[in-house]
Amino acid sequence: MLTADLMVDDVMRRWPSTIRVFLDFRMRCVGCPIATFHSIDEACDEHSVDAAAFLSKLQDTVKAAA
To answer: Where are the domains of the chain?
Structure first.
């Protein structure tokens, strides 16, 4: 299950289709060394992104790819 407490790097590795979502939200987490330490929630805070909207889009993307 994809939740806001998961590490960004783990999310992108487990569900590669989510990479597009990060890019669409202008979050340059792909390849960032901090991605292994930041949760989705922390990354959203760092990038001033609405965490609920971002998480919802990630979850929709994962469902669509399944």
So the answer is: 8-65
